[in-house]
Design goal:
This protein is of the alpha+beta class and 130 residues long. The protein contains 4 helices and 4 strands; from the N terminus they run αβαββαβα. A 4-stranded mixed β-sheet has the order 1-3-2-4. β2 and β3 form a beta hairpin. The termini are far apart.
């Protein structure tokens, strides 16, 4: 719905996938492919948990750099009386695993300065091959 948050958008798109896991991803993360790879490896390493969350280098849980077992996702989404709340609400009743982002892969772009820094980092990584 207009002026709603990411939880409403996630709800609207939930029928687009069919896998056992749902990845919840932000669109303002330049290194999203590394986030997807990170979450895929986390699922492989610990497939029995309800969800995986990445904690940014500055200590914030990145709710939109996460993976949730589809059955838990569907149950928690259905339990929300209001889709205007933050994505964090999907995780409140779950036991999830926190993973440290020691490489800064979850850094997002919120300002023009963030964009310039992301471009510089991208150029540095592509030059060095790391």
């Amino acid at each position: 719905p207009p002026y709603s948050g990411p939880l409403a958008a996630i709800s609207a798109a939930r029928d687009l996938g069919q896998g056992e896991w749902v990845l919840l991803l932000a669109t303002d993360v330049p290194n999203i492919s590394a986030v997807i790879e990170f979450l895929t490896e986390a699922i492989k390493a610990q497939p029995g948990v309800a969800a995986h969350l990445i904690e940014s280098p500055n200590g914030h849980l990145e709710w939109l750099s996460s993976a949730m077992r589809r059955s838990d996702f569907e149950r928690e989404l259905a339990a929300q009386p209001d889709l205007g709340v933050g994505v964090k609400r999907l995780f409140e009743r779950l036991d999830y695993v926190r993973h440290q982002d020691s490489d800064g892969i979850t850094l997002d772009v919120d300002t023009p300065q963030d964009w310039h820094e992301a471009q510089a980092e991208w150029a540095r990584v592509n030059r060095s091959g790391t």
